[in-house]
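Hey, weird one. I pasted the enoyl-CoA hydratase sequence into the form twice and got a warning about non-standard characters only the second time. First submission, copied straight from the form history:
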Amino acid sequence: MSYENIEVRVEAGKVGIVTLNRPKALNALNDALMDELGAALKAFDADEAIGCMIITGSERAFAAGADIALMAKYTFVDTYKGDYITRNWESVRSIRKPVIAAVSGFALGGGCELAMMCDFIIAADNARFGQPEIKLGVIPGAGGTQRLPRAVGKAKAMDMALTGRMMDAAEAERAGLVSRVVPYDKLMDEALGAALTIADFSQIAVMAAKESVNRAFEGSLSDGVMFERRLFHALFATADQKEGMDAFLNKRKAEFKNQ
Ligand code: CO8
């Protein structure tokens, strides 16, 4: 399939990489881009050979938010009836294999929300995160007011959402928004290294781990712990569990078959 707003490639036969590609608008997100992103991620998710995905942008911008030029003319009726842009976010959320955001430059508004929708964020040292919608007379519309406080706590989330200020990479790492910060020229190596590590594990265990961590944000602690316990027990029905533990005991590298 050919795309106009993203570039898609596979590394080492097992990591699917999507590069957002609307450079003139700093990768501003529109319906066409989000449809393509959803289609690409779903295709990777369905491909048995792919064990992990990476979403990235350019050096200057991961994504500078929803496309303001497009949004400016919309009425409430346009956005509500058309379920404007937020409708295509469901596809990102529905991906079952891990998705890493490799962020360089601006990750603002919907761009920050897209990064937060990924399973974890690896940032270049020039990354800048923000929810500046307040400056436009609106608020975050793709989960920012919910995911940001879960990631960085209420104080910083309120600060960001109410003042519209940006957070640099160092602050984002201190606050827990990103898992690692590396120099820009190491960003893709670092993300690819993490993705290859994940891709070599049992896909079943990896999907169960993702599902269980995500559950921590959905319900009560006791429900989450019970959910995790059920998945943990279920993994003992897989051949990969036998392989992983046998490999450890026999001091050899595990060869997972995703079964
Ligand atoms: N939409 C459309 N075009 C954009 C956007 C955007 N979000 N951001 C930048 N551009 C364009 C600029 O208009 C400019 O175009 P041109 O060259 O034709 O004038 C080009 O990209 C380069 O931008 P600048 O000249 O402004 O570059 P600077 O380096 O001076 O500034 C900034 C970079 C700080 C990133 C600045 O461009 C900026 O503030 N951008 C807007 C950031 C913003 O407000 N983002 C939030 C948008 S609202 C949103 O995301 C709501 C999400 C709701 C959920 C829906 C899901 C998406």
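That's the output from the first submission. The warning seems to come from a hidden character in my clipboard, not from the data itself. The pocket of octanoyl-coenzyme A is lined by residues 25-26, 28-29, 64-69, 85-86, 106, 108-110, 132-133, 136, 140-142 (CB under 6 Å).
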